[in-house]
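[User]
If only I could read backbone structure tokens as easily as an amino acid sequence. I have put the entry right below:
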Amino acid sequence: MKLSETSIRRPVLASMFSAALVLFGVIGYTRLAVRELPDIDPPIISVSTTLPGANAQVVETAVTDVLEEELSTIQGLRTLSSSSSEENSQITLEFTLDRPIDVAAQDVRDKVSRVRGRLPVDVLEPVIAKQSADAQPFFWLALSSDNYDLMQLSDVADRVVKARLQSLPGVGSAGIFGERRYSMRVWVQPNGLSARGLTVQDIENAIVSRNVEIPAGRIESTRREFSVRSLGELKTAREFGELAVASQGTQLVKLKDVARVELGPEDDRSIFRYNGSPAVAIGVVRQSKANLIDVARNIREALPSIQQALPPGVKLQTAWDGSVFVTHSINDARLTLLIAAILVVLIIFVFLRNVRATIIPGLAIPASIIATFAIMYFLGFSINNFTLLALTIAIGIVVDDAIIVLENAFRHQEELHEQPEEAAVRGTNEIGFAVIATTIALVAVFSPLA
């Protein structure tokens, strides 16, 4: 065993090499991402389709069944499940592990595009998405106020809070939930429509065709040139009310004659409450490789400055912080790792009753464990419960190998009366291959768990 013999005969070189490994391990530890579980994206793809105004039965027959028939023929498909609800169709496809998820996603897009013409005309474009471990919000904020309604809070959340959160390091996106977007609501009067011989479709067509801003060209002369802007886009409820929807002889029928127009929320069918009061929620999604604990800390540090930029009376509070549980879980695993190392060293001292013999395995534990962090960084691993559990198990393997080598070298020195350096070289060479074989066997046993 040339490596062990060189390390024994050149202790300074071995010490510097071990110190370098520990240094690289410390650097890798500071750069590793911290997660609760490993960063593994399951081979699952979802297809979401919306058909406005349709009930669950219509969605199932007109959308879900058509897509299922085509998607069921994709190669490598393991399971296919679907659910149909009011206006929405959700299809989930799970593929085998040997099927590349990017290739499978492309096949799903191709299949959906083939049957796009068989879907209803009013159906929205199907949304095809890969399921990601980091796609869900891990940090929730609640925006509430006693002086502002939900539409105003939604506007503040979109212009102020969301923009500032998305500029923070490690933040991938920020979504607004329970929002109330500004929109112009038209409440049609059935009696007014029937009296004038109009339908709801006539009102819709008039609004769509006249509430539009189109290019108007320019006016040119020999000395000047003007750009012309057509102010066709309506802004206020009064402007909508003056919109002409029909002409009956010499009389124009305006929208205010057959409907009531007011400013209101685009969708008021869902609501978000925080501490029993209506509020607007902001969910933060981190970037895939970002450190969850660092991102959460950046958000907490930015909250005071964001609060100062909000209008008076608007409160921004932390509703749920997913990093708290992850921090406690990782800290518990780290404590378990430290306790395991200390107990191993104490047990070695109790049985060997030799301080020098105890120091050697005691130094082997931190040198091996810390150096592992450098390998983890280059392999793209993260600090999570599984990796820390694996390091805890590895402590026993490291100590076993160190004790076996130490005992054999000690036997050569005491029983065979060899010099310490020669005893260490011969003792290591005798069992070096057996120690390596034992370690490889243990790795092979745990490999299926990976």
In short: Residues 136 and 285 are 6 Å apart (CA to CA). The chain has a mean pLDDT of 82. The domain at 183-265 is CATH 3.30.2090.10 (Multidrug efflux transporter AcrB TolC docking domain; DN and DC subdomains). The two ends are 30 Å apart (CA to CA).
